[in-house]
Every structure is written in C-alpha cells, then in structure tokens.
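Hello K.,

You asked for the raw outputs rather than the summary table, so here they are, unedited. I folded two proteins back to back in the same session to keep the settings identical. This is the first:
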Amino acid sequence: MSAPKRRLSWNDPSVRSVVYQVLALAAVGFAVWYLVSNTLTNLSARNISTGFGFLSREAGFAIGESAIAYTPADTYGRAVMVGLVNTLKIAALGIVLATILGTLIGIARLSKNWLVHKLARIYVEVMRNVPLLLQLFFWYALLTENAAGPRQAANPLPGVFISNRGLTMPSLEGQALDWMLGGLILAILCTILLGHWGRKHQEKTGRVFPLGRAALGLFIGLPLIGWLLSGASLALNVPELKGFNFVGGVTLSPEFAALLAGLVIYTSAFIAEVVRSGIQAVNQGQWEAAGSLGLKRGQVLRLVVLPQALRVIIPPMTSQYLNLTKNSSLAVAIGYPDIVSVVNTTLNQTGQAIEGILIIMAAYLTVSLSISIFMNWYNKRIALVER
C-alpha cells in the first residue's frame, strides 16, 4: 500500500520554513549583487582600476622586519606574504606564551598562599582593565625612549646588547643547526607519544612513567645526536658594533618585543580567569578523593583536576586565541610590519583600497577559522563520551 501523498499547505510549518529561508537567501543575494554592482559602476566612472593584477607589480618599498627573504624589487604579492608571515609569527608565539603565563597565573589565583593569591588577582584586574593599545604604547616607549643608541648600548652578557635598535644576541649558524632543529622536533613528537603510552601504561599497571626525566633526556640527547651526525659543524655568530649599528647575530626589534609583550600580558589575564573558572568547575570531591590516595596537591592538579577542567576551559580559550590573533592588527600603531601595515602601504601606493581590505579580511578569516577548526577538533577529542 503506497503512502499518501503529502499536500503542500501554508499551514504546514515545514512549508513556511522553506519559503522563509528561500526569501531570506534571495534578499541576501540581491543585497550582495546590488553592492558589488554599485561599487564597480562607481569605480568605473572614476577610472579606478579593479582586480588583483597589482599583486604582480614591483612593490618598491622596504619592510623593516621580515621572516622570509624580501627586497623592494619584489612584487606586492611578496610584500603581502611577508606581512602575513609576520602576523602568523607574532600570533603563534603570543598564543604559546600567553597560554603558559595565563595558566600559571590562573593556578596562582587559587593558591592557599595569601601573597601569591593577592598578587595574581591584582595582575588580572589591572591588565584586563587597561586597554591593549595603551599597553602597546607603554612597552614601546619603555623599549625605545629609555634605551641608548648602539654605541652606548648596555652589555649585560658577553655578546648581548640592549639598545634602541632592540635586543641583539649571538646566533647559531652552520649545517648542524638544521640537524639540531630536526632533533628538537623529533624530541617533541617522541615526548607526545611517550606521554600517551605512559597514560595507557599507568591505567594497566598503576605505575607512573617518569615522563619528565625521559623528556629531558630526549630534548638534550636528540639535538646532540643531530649535531654529531652533521659533523659538529656549528658556529656562533657574535654581533659586533660596526659604524652606527651591530653586524652579525640576531636582533629582536623593539616593535616586535613591544607587540609580543603587550599581547601576551593582556591576553594572559583573560586566560588566567578561564583557567581559574575551569578548575573551580571540577567537583571538590575530586580533590578529596585523589588526596585520599596519597597524591600531592601538584599531582592532583596535574593528573586529576586539569584533565577534567580542560572540557570547560577549551571553548572560552578558543575565543581568547582568536582575540589575540585579531588584536595583533594593532601592530600598525607601533610600526611592526604585520599584514595590516603592509597592505595599508600597498593600497596607498596603488589606490586599490577595496582589494586591500579584502586581502586583510581573507587573511584574518582564514587564520581564525583554522584556529577554530583545530580547537573544536581538540574539544571533541577530550569530550566525555556517553555509553
């Protein structure tokens, strides 16, 4: 017996739902078409060229700090790539450092030591309520106005100089450096695998695997093996003062240092509250049960409480990572050449502001979605699975 045919009726909620969604989609499509058409018409009337063809033209301007090779003879596309890499570099370092500092301060907020608790609380309340832009100006002024020139640079350690050009220090050079970096990456991967195996081993036997000592051995041994395999060809490039600046070594610019310090200190205050609330969300009985097994407070926090608190911490932590990444756009205020600064220079020279803004929007949208996808994947991975 065939099923009765469904009659379309306006009284059917599902029919009305489909109609409303189609109308809403049509309205959005019409609005987008109107805006794009109107913009192209106005640009054509003013003889303003459109498109992204300018990215293949010679840029003709210098960028003060670049993680990849760049000269003014390179294209605008290369310049935009330099700005994007600079943004990714500051965002990645900022996320790692802010997470470490914020976690430590969040744990300190719950300390039974009165002084530690109060200092952590003061830090959080002050840093959260001072605007980030003001903090960036403060750190930049501190690093530039109170520092002497290269000839009068402070020399706290051999080969290390602090001046208004930034922090200059020795750097490693040679073929062995690549081998040592490979050994370091291998050590990180081995530590992650050992940690996973150690948890499984503890669940089966009840014995705690000494992961800390094993990781220390890996982080020392594997880079050392890489150094030996490369023929021990590693040289120390010590900076020297020649003329009006230092030659050799590596220099951490005041702009980069000020931006990194501002982002880390500001964001860590919010992360500290996320960590504190996540730990407090774990039932007090978990502390008492773990303590009754003879575990120390630090072991209880690391082995019992924090793994459960992560399920509460991860979602708001994702928002803080996204905020840090987007707040890095304030770099233009202190002269750090991030993607916003580079694209601003590009659109001032080419006059193609719409394309420039679209490039910035696409870059931040891609980075933010990538962070969200990874954090959502990790959140699902640690979520409780009901049986």
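The second followed immediately with the same parameters:
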Amino acid sequence: MSNLLARDTDTHGITTLTLNQPERRNSLSMAMLDALSEALTDIAADDVTRVVVIAAAGTVFCAGHDLREIRDQLDSHEFQLALFNRCSEVMQQVVNLPKPVIARVAGVATAAGCQLVASCDLAVAADSARFATPGVNIGLFCSTPMVALSRNLSRKHAMEMLLTGEMISAVRAEQLGLVNRIVDESLLDETVHAMARTIAEKSGHTLKIGKGAFYKQLEMPLAEAYDYTAKVMAENLRADDAREGICAFLDKRKPEWKDR
C-alpha cells in the first residue's frame, strides 16, 4: 500500500483506509487518487472486507484537490482534465463498491474532500468537524463536488453551499443530510466501528444487492423504480442467504450466512 494511504482490516472484516498525508491536508492529489483507486479495486475483489471506513490522519479530513499541484500544472489542460476525471472515477468507485462505505470525519472536509464524504454511503462526524465547497472563493466553482453534494442535499441547500463557499458546522451538516451522526470526537472511533460491526454482521451478498439497487433506482422514474426493485427482491429470494435468514427468523435462531 502507498505511504499516502494506510490500510488495515480487523477481525470483523472492517477495512479502514486512512488518508495519510496530514502535512498536505490529506489533499486528493493525483497520487492520492491513484492510491485510493488501487485500494478500492482490491477491496471490491477480496472475500475478507465486509465494510469499508474512510478516515484521515491529522487534524484535517481532506482539503480537496492539491492546489499546489494544480498551480504547477495551470498551463496543462490535459493534466487538469485527467485530474478531475480521475477524481470522478474514484468517487464512482466508492458508490459502486459492492460493500458499504462509511466516512469517519474529524476536522475539515472541503471541496473534493466534502465530495468524498458525500460519495460515501454513510458518514459519522466529530462535533468539531466542518464542511464547505469553497471553490467559488478562489474562482474555481466546485462543479464535480456538486454532483455528489446535490445527490445528498436538497437543491437549495446544495446551491447555498456552492454559491457562498461558507463553512458549515457538523450540526448543520447533519441537519442537511450530509452526515448521519455527530458525536464527541472522543467517541468517534467507537461510534464508527459500532456502526460498521452492525453492518458487517449482515449477509455480504444481501448488502451487495441492496447497495447496488439503492443507487440504481434513485435515477429512475417512480413506476420504473418499483418495477426494477420488485425484480431485485424476487431474485434476492433465490439466494441461499435469503432462505437462511427467513428460516432463522422463523426458527428464532441466529442466521449462518454463506454470503451467496
């Protein structure tokens, strides 16, 4: 694993990916994006990981793109396009990963860092965490972060963050739907891992089906979404774990998942 990104998997099948460049505010440089992409590709194929936690070392979760790197490449449109495309690919990897992803947010998450939080399935933040899409303040509108943000927040709330560039508190982020829970920073790890363990105890096959269907139906008209999800549920019932889960519930025993 790249020294930019630490990776650890515990006995519950919870894999933590830690952005590990605090001296650069854990910015999403091309190298960091490559490291994240490689890790997510590996995790998608492994049989051990059941839940992913994305965390960060230091006092900043992620400050977005590396502005020094961007400044050094200001005259290279090719690099700029490659950088934003790469970032977009990584965010879609998070969404398309067949395993739930939880953002563990301590400190500041801005621009593409806020985009990363919004791209995760769940997010738990310390009460001191703050969020912003401040690109407008430096003449670079947060257009790609807007994609993830607008799929989490209402239109007017997303536009307020994008147009003002102002920092919002963890409390406000929870109110707007950007994060699920806020806790005292001393309880952050405990809360994140309790949530991850709860999810990790479910059938991995069922989680894969459900996560994929959730994002797919969001883009459909109502009738089409119901037609699609009815087929998903009927197909889900053919799985060994669905049969085991129903029988275990009726027999009042704990299910034994086969993840198939």
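Residues 61 and 107 are 5 Å apart (CA to CA).

Happy to rerun anything if the numbers look odd on your end.

Regards,
P.
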